[in-house]
Specification:
The chain is an alpha+beta fold and 665 residues long. The protein has 18 helices and 26 strands. It folds into four domains: 59 residues, no CATH class; 164 residues, Beta Barrel (Cathepsin D, subunit A, domain 1), CATH 2.40.70.10; 275 residues, 2-Layer Sandwich (Alpha-Beta Plaits); 40 residues, no CATH class. The strands form seven sheets. Strands 2-3-8-4-7-6 form a six-stranded mixed beta barrel. A hairpin with a 2-residue loop joins strand 24 and strand 25. Helix 10 packs across helix 11, helix 15 crosses helix 16 and helix 17 runs antiparallel to helix 18. About 11% of the residues have low confidence.
């Protein structure tokens, strides 16, 4: 009670209505004087029984009923329940009982089993034994790892809350014990997720004394982890051939023997477990909230506060933590990064060498039909090798896990530098049914939105744009990760196919954009302090590899360009294709560094593509080119919407045109 008074006082709240902005003497509320006629809230009312118990506690005695050794059942105040429920946004909880009982943690029957895949290989899976489940369930992820043959099904599963779920696929798998010879064939229904992680949060087992010679069915029973399958009532009772049980202590669960080993089942109580704290409430009173009254009040008040929340998801935060803890630089200043993997990466990546070789053979046939494309493709690969961005694998260890990236050409006729690029496909499925991209984390977005960058660009009287040459390939990948970025290649069909490893960040992989943009941010943090204009511009005015910014004067723009030209090479990056609406800013640059046809004068209607928008630097205009082909054919709703969708319009400047096209449909 003293803590409640202290909390209300520290929050500068009214003791009568628990609101802010006034005190008791100015409070007009009369709804909280149900215990007595004094002006304080019901939560702050100290009853006689509590006074007595506190007095007994201070004198070292325990209050019990005369002639009985049992502890009296706690009383529940309905008014207290209703107020707390309101503070918790009407959550159906009974706080008064929770305040007099130790916190309960209920362990369900989880086991780790061996499951046999389609090729006879064994995989470990975490299963929930549920006697109240009619079907057996398996996650789609586990079914794909096992490569189980799927059959059509038409079943509706209905669980808690009466929410039906339609199931369209089923599989069959052999489930075995890790302990003995037990094995059974199980028909599963396939679902995206069979249940929430169990337990809901990791639980400390400090003080538990579990005999070391016992084989535990789930060695990590107290750690919150995903469930891969549910084994239902059809097989449930065959898992318990005996009634062996071990009661470790009164405040910890039972150990139940099964064909999978000893299972932890039942309830544990957090905190000291004494006769005075043993729960004796009726069944209706056991549904309690696991938070204290003070926490309920604090959470209620916290909803009115403006706080800075973490915008990253759990996976994104894990990517950021991995990057910060593992990024390094070599002697040249180049950054070395690691690809963020999902927790079960090794299980998800299967065999792909044979498929990659078949796709490479198809690529060779395509290149043979187009000699010009073949020559450009060969030049690209030669450049990759000469720049040290990939290396030949001399001795291939077939037993070690690896991934072979299929690759194919992409032609961009409008490109002023490389018209033919080699694109690597990280989305090709392996033997497990997962691709490399599915086994890697994407990572968060760390740069400003495109709309914000373009809007800032239009505010500068002196505009300045550039881009980074081969940005991804300037960032090295840690040697432990290059095995998963292999390709097959040969310069002549008469020579054997060789294996190469890509040594830099590779476009086509899920986290590559994050790693590249995050490295620019890291360069700004590491080196940007020495560049008062270039450092902030590196953080705020880059969208992937494109710089689009400006300055308030020609002198400031020249200084900005100079600082960026000095800052980027410290991380191994090179800026090129500089352009500005004022040619004075480009003085001193070579023709290879300038994005316009000349640094001395503008050609008529010369334009540059910046972030997908056509920009005319001489007049500082944004231009939108339409690729609509006019013909005598009758326009349909689909063709009109298709033509309108081709117009890239991030600022909404041509919205009247696009909207008008939509109105005609």
């Amino acid at each position: 009670m003293r803590d409640r008074h202290k909390l209300v006082t520290s929050k500068r709240l009214c003791h009568n209505c628990l609101s802010s902005g006034h005190f008791v003497r100015n409070c007009s509320s009369t709804l909280n004087r149900r215990k007595c006629n004094r002006r304080h809230h019901t939560f702050l009312h100290e009853t006689d029984s509590r006074k007595a118990s506190s007095q007994n506690a201070s004198s070292g005695s325990t209050a019990v009923s005369s002639g009985s050794s049992s502890t009296p059942s706690p009383t529940v105040d309905p008014s207290t329940q209703s107020i707390v429920a309101a503070a918790e946004n009407a959550l159906p909880v009974e706080v008064s009982t929770a305040l007099q009982q130790p916190r309960e943690n209920v362990f369900l029957l989880t086991v780790v089993v061996k499951v046999i895949g389609s090729h006879g290989s064994e995989y470990l899976a975490r299963a929930l034994l549920d006697s109240a489940s009619q079907p057996n369930l398996i996650t789609d992820r586990m079914a794909r790892i096992l490569r189980l043959r799927r059959q059509s099904a038409n079943v509706t599963v209905q669980g808690a809350g009466q929410l039906p779920k339609s199931i369209t696929e089923s599989v069959f798998a052999q489930v075995q014990s890790r302990k003995g010879n037990f094995s059974c064939g199980v028909n599963f229904l396939v679902m995206d997720k069979v249940t929430a992680d169990l337990p809901s949060q990791s639980i400390s087992t400090a003080g538990w004394i579990i005999p070391e010679d016992l084989f535990m069915a789930d060695p990590s029973f107290n750690e919150s982890q995903p469930i891969d399958m549910v084994l239902g009532a059809r097989h449930f009772y065959s898992f318990f051939p005996s009634n062996e049980r071990i009661q470790l202590d009164r405040n910890v669960p039972l150990l139940v023997n099964s064909v999978f080993g000893w299972i932890v089942a039942g309830t544990s109580y957090a905190g000291p477990f004494t006769q005075a704290s043993m729960p004796t409430a009726s069944c209706s009173e056991v549904e309690v909230s696991m938070v204290s009254l003070e926490e309920c009040l604090e959470r209620f008040w916290r909803t009115e506060e403006l706080t800075n929340t973490d915008t990253y998801s759990v996976e994104e935060r894990r990517c950021e933590t991995l990057y910060q803890s593992t990024v390094s630089r070599n002697e040249e200043g180049r950054y070395i990064v690691r690809y963020p993997r999902k927790p079960d990466f090794e299980v998800m990546i299967g065999e792909f060498r044979n498929n990659a070789q078949r796709q490479f053979e198809h690529l060779e046939k395509r290149l043979e039909r187009d000699p010009h494309l073949k020559e450009e493709y060969r030049k690209f690969i030669k450049e990759y090798i000469s720049l040290g961005h990939m290396r030949l694998v001399e001795a291939d260890d077939d037993d070690a896990p690896a991934y072979y990236l299929p690759h194919h050409p992409v032609v961009k006729e409008e490109s002023t530098t490389t018209k033919v690029r080699v694109v690597f496909n990280g989305s090709a499925k392996t033997s497990t049914g997962f691709s490399l991209n599915e086994a890697l984390c994407v990572g968060p977005v760390v740069q400003d939105d495109l709309l914000d960058i373009i809007l800032r660009f239009r505010t500068f009287p002196i505009a300045l744009v550039a881009d980074i040459a081969k940005m991804y390939r300037q960032i090295l990948v840690h040697p432990d990760y290059v095995r998963f970025k292999r390709i097959l290649w040969r310069f002549s069909g008469k020579t054997p196919i060789q294996v190469y490893e890509l040594l830099t960040v590779t476009y086509g992989l899920a986290p590559s954009s994050y790693l590249a943009t995050r490295t620019l941010q890291q360069l700004a943090e590491d080196e940007g302090a020495a560049y008062p204009i270039g450092g902030p511009a590196l953080k705020k005015n880059f969208y992937v590899d494109d710089f689009i910014g400006g300055a308030q004067s020609i002198e400031e723009a020249i200084r900005l360009r100079t600082e960026l030209d000095e800052l980027l090479p410290k991380g191994g990056f090179e800026l090129r294709k500089w352009a500005s609406n004022r040619l004075e800013v480009l003085q001193g640059l070579s023709n290879e560094q300038v994005g316009t046809q000349s640094a001395l004068h503008f050609t008529p209607e010369e334009s540059i593509k910046a972030l997908g928008i056509i920009w005319e630097p001489e007049g500082d205009y944004l231009r939108f080119d339409s690729k609509v082909q006019f013909s005598d054919a009758v326009s349909t709703k689909r063709s009109i919407l298709s033509d309108a969708a081709r117009l890239f319009n991030p600022l909404g400047l041509i919205a009247p045109v696009v909207v008008r096209a939509g109105l005609h449909t």
